[in-house]
Amino acid sequence: MTTPTPTTPPTLVVLDMAGTTVADDGLVEWAFSRAAEELGVEPGSPDHQEKLDHVRATMGESKITVFRTLFGTEERARRANAAFERAYAGLLDSGACTPLPGAADAIGQLRSAGRTVVLTTGFSRTTQDAILAALGWRDIADLTLCPADAGRGRPYPDMVLTALLRTGTESVRDIAVAGDTAYDMLSGVRAGATHVLGSVAELPALLEGTAG
């Protein structure tokens, strides 16, 4: 996870969802496998393993961007994305999506301390809203953003910078960013963040320390 250098108390906290505040437990990989099978990729085949390895290596990236790389044409990428969303929605309906321990409390502490919290994701708006609804998190953050809201997803800093613009935050030096994947880290660093944490639950205490 990344946060800004502790020289200015952050007023804006941008948090990833799956893997950072929301438990993943292989849900993305399972939904991808179902989507790939719908597009004719045989489970257990070398092609399937190669594509799954790419999904693992690009966790945090916009899912439609991943599918464009894997399936070549826009039509196939959109079919794969639609199949992925259906599969993931089924997991949500089954109750497989849960918050990570301490995540909701951490978000509450951050907001109680007067900080603005924004949740970001590599999923589409449809899937992001479904996750928020499944967890009862529709009002947990001040703002939620997906790649389509910003123009580009991770590893670009666009969602972080969009969060800055939409919340009226004065400077990138006022932002803390937290995520669990290499792409989360890269987008945070590109937006000016540089600190490592073990869990999002540690974030409120760290930010209180920067204010001291």
Summary tags:
4-stranded parallel β-sheet, Rossmann fold, globular, 212 residues, alpha/beta, 2 domains
Give the SSE layout.
Blueprint: E1 12-16, H1 27-38, H2 46-57, H3 63-71, H4 74-93, H5 103-112, E2 116-120, H6 125-135, E3 143-145, H7 147-150, H8 158-167, E4 175-178, H9 182-190, H10 203-211
Parallel strand pairs: 1-2, 1-4, 2-3
Helix pairs in contact: 1-2, 1-4, 3-4, 4-6
GO biological process, one term: DNA repair
InterPro entries: HAD-like_hydrolase_sf, HAD-like_sf, HAD_sf
Protein name: HAD hydrolase-like protein
Low-confidence stretches: 2-6
* CATH homologous superfamily assignment of the largest domain: HAD superfamily/HAD-like
The CATH level-2 architecture of the largest domain is identified as 3-Layer(aba) Sandwich
Q: H/E element string?
A: EHHHHHEHEHHEHH
CATH class of the largest domain: Alpha Beta
Q: Helix proportion of residues, in percent?
A: 40-55%
Give me the Rg, rounded. 17 Å
Secondary structure category: alpha/beta
CATH topological fold name of the largest domain? Rossmann fold
Q: Which oligomerization state do the chains in this entry correspond to?
A: single chain
Largest sheet entry: 4 strands, parallel
The proportion of strand residues reads 5-15%
Would you tell me the overall average pLDDT? 89
Q: Quickly count the domains.
A: 2
End-to-end Cα distance: 21 Å
